[in-house]
């Protein structure tokens, strides 16, 4: 009998009927431990049987379809239908014959080679050849009848222990669409290999990534959660290698992961509980996304599929899972440093309450809190709506205050007293508590810009008290970023001249604290201190303090700094001083007039607001002018006449190499701020200026 004759492949014995592809029993693979040797275990054995379309007399689906189309025709039509069925059957038989020939001529020889060959390189080459042949013969997937034969051979080779061979075997096994425990086993195998970075090149060269992504794309999540976990573990490992990013993103990794995350969110919402292993899976997924978002293309994809709200949902549903929340915070920390992503998250109004909940829940967990506060700093940096939205959330300011107090206290305790003559070593990066304080003061500085939030913070005694305590206790040499951020926050709060402002109440104490910044060698620290003096010097008592403590001499000296921002702030302080007639004379100290004119010449054409401040200062100074030369000095008076005449010529003044938006910006400030005061100053100088030269003293 045909069924009794044997076809022998070393290690595999098949009846000829089996060789045609009728063996239908599935195989189950198990592991001894997580990464033990693979065992083959048949779930059940059945006798070889004919395919269903041969048993039933043809392809039933096609047969019914054709009959229905001819149901109203003659008997001849129905006879033709039967004839078509016979032709159909013949075509199927032909396909089987072709498949049998392909199997015997192309596949069987490779399987024989795999069974007998001992050289790893040759076996690997044979695996590659097998994969290509199976693909060519359309024998991949779960419906191929000889699949179990292939799997038996492949599983035996896993025991060889070669990582390269195992990857090639795994790629074929995944292409055969295994499921259940078999899928789990092969994912574990690849995971084991991926744990070593030295195997990254093997993974990249063998193209296993696409197979893994296909598992996540096509397999059912709830039935394969553990397999997905190992699969994601592999993808997470290799995503840490920049060489994989382009390939991963190009093969749809971002979309696949976010689709999977959406499924998890929906399943969690439906069941009202976190499903088993979903937290572990999310850790791997979010860690992978954290690596992917270094790419502009990945960030663009996240925005196009509205991924940021989904990530917020994950945070909310898994708020008890610190690792998941930390990974999502890492993603947000990265993406919010880019304007489009920052705007997108800021516009998702639910994120603010979520971040406050996280701060309250994990207040002493520095690694998570520091990232949440950093994100809030990014969101509120350039977005007034974000500042308002956050401040309106219930408990926003008390939460920040509580966090401030917690980490200020931790920072105090971390500062061990030094012995006599002992110097504190300079840390390469801020200590953990200090790092939170740096980010937190930035948030406060940003919030203070909002016209309704700023006055409320300025009137908050505990917040202002902590800011001043920090400014008093910290040195800019040891804690540069923290001192600068703290001073910037005080500067923003000092802008508000309101009766209940703690800043205004303690203005002289603040001015005293700022002196140590002015005499430091840190120009950024000096700038922030000068800005505070710019706001505080609107008060008469502060102006007296400035003159009494010779702070005005610092301001005049800073006009030589050749930095536009410093000159602007220093000029602002000098302008406020010249409001008081008794203090105008200070501009003649240290060459103040000449330095103001130099600032006008150097920065005027690029900064009409600074030019306006210079002109206002000179206008105040020259209120009681009798002669331009005696007031400003001959050289300064003549220079001012030339500069002002030139700068008031619109064609000359606005002929800078700027783009159109910048030109419009400059023109606005030139017309509304500079031009009115400059024209008045020019008129005053011209009306008090003579071009007559004095006669030389006669000789006798």
From TrEMBL:
It comes from Balaenoptera acutorostrata (Common minke whale). Residues 49-86 are annotated as: Disordered. Gene3D superfamilies: Leucine-rich Repeat Variant (1.25.10.10). Residues 73-86 have a biased composition (Basic and acidic residues). It comes from the Eukaryota. This is Armadillo repeat-containing protein 2 isoform X2.
């Amino acid at each position: 009998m045909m069924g009794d004759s044997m076809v022998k492949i070393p290690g595999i014995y098949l009846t000829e009927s089996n060789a045609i592809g009728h063996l239908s029993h599935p195989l189950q693979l198990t592991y001894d431990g997580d990464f033990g040797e693979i065992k083959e275990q048949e779930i059940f054995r059945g006798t070889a049987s004919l395919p269903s379309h041969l048993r039933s007399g043809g392809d039933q689906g096609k047969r019914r379809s054709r009959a229905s189309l001819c149901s109203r025709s003659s008997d001849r039509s129905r006879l033709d239908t039967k004839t078509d069925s016979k032709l159909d059957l013949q075509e199927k038989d032909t396909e089987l014959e072709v498949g049998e020939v392909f199997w015997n001529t192309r596949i069987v020889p490779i399987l024989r080679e795999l069974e007998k060959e001992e050289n790893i390189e040759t076996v690997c080459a044979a695996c590659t050849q097998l994969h290509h042949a199976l693909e060519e013969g359309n024998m991949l997937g779960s419906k191929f009848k000889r699949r179990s034969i292939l799997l038996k051979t492949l599983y035996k080779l896993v025991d060889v222990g070669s990582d390269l061979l195992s990857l090639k075997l795994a790629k074929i096994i995944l292409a055969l669409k295994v499921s259940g425990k078999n899928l789990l086993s092969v994912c574990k195998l690849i995971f084991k290999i991926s744990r070593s970075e030295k195997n990254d090149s093997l993974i990249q060269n063998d193209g296993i990534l696409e197979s893994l992504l296909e598992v996540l794309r096509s397999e059912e999540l709830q039935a394969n959660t553990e397999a997905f976990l190992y699969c994601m573990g592999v993808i997470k490992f290799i995503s840490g290698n920049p060489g994989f990013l382009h390939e991963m993103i190009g093969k749809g990794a971002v979309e696949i992961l976010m689709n999977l995350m959406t499924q998890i969110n929906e399943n969690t919402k439906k069941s009202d509980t976190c499903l088993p292993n979903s937290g572990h899976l999310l850790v791997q997924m979010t860690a992978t996304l954290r690596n992917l978002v270094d790419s502009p293309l990945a960030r663009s994809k996240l925005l196009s599929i509205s991924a940021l709200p989904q990530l917020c949902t994950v945070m909310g549903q898994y708020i008890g899972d610190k690792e998941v929340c930390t990974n999502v915070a890492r993603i947000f920390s990265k993406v919010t440093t880019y304007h489009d992503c920052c705007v997108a998250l800021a516009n998702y109004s639910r994120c603010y309450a979520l971040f406050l909940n996280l701060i309250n829940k994990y207040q002493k967990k520095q690694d998570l809190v520091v990232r949440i506060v950093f994100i809030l700093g990014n969101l509120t940096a350039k977005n007034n709506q974000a500042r308002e939205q956050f401040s309106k959330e219930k408990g926003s300011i008390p939460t920040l205050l509580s966090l401030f107090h917690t980490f200020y206290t931790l920072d105090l305790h971390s500062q061990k007293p030094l012995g006599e003559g002992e110097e504190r070593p300079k840390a390469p990066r801020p200590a953990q508590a200090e790092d939170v304080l740096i980010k937190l003061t930035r948030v406060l500085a940003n919030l203070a810009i909002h016209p309704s939030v700023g006055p409320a913070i300025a009137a908050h005694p505990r917040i202002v008290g902590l800011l001043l305590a920090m400014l008093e206790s910290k040195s800019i040499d040891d804690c540069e970023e923290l001192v600068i951020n703290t001073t910037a926050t005080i500067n923003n709060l000092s802008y508000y001249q309101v009766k209940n402002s703690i800043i205004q109440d303690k203005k002289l104490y603040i001015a005293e604290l700022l002196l140590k910044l002015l005499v430091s060698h840190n120009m950024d620290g000096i700038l922030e201190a000068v800005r505070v003096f710019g706001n505080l010097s609107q008060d008469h008592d502060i102006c007296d303090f400035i003159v009494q403590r010779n702070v005005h001499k610092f301001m005049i000296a800073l006009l030589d700094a050749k930095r536009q921002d410093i000159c602007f702030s220093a000029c602002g302080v000098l302008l406020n001083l010249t409001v008081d007639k008794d203090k105008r004379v200070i501009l003649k100290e240290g060459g103040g007039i000449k330095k103001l004119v130099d600032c006008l010449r150097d920065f005027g054409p690029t900064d009409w607001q600074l030019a306006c401040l210079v002109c206002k200062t000179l206008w105040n100074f020259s209120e009681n002018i009798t002669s331009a030369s005696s007031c400003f000095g001959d050289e300064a008076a003549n220079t001012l006449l030339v500069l002002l005449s030139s700068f008031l010529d619109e064609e000359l003044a606005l002929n800078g190499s700027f783009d159109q938006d910048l030109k419009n910006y400059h023109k606005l400030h030139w017309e509304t701020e500079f031009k009115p005061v400059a024209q008045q100053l020019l008129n005053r100088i011209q009306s008090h200026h003579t071009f007559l030269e004095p006669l030389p003293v006669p000789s006798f």
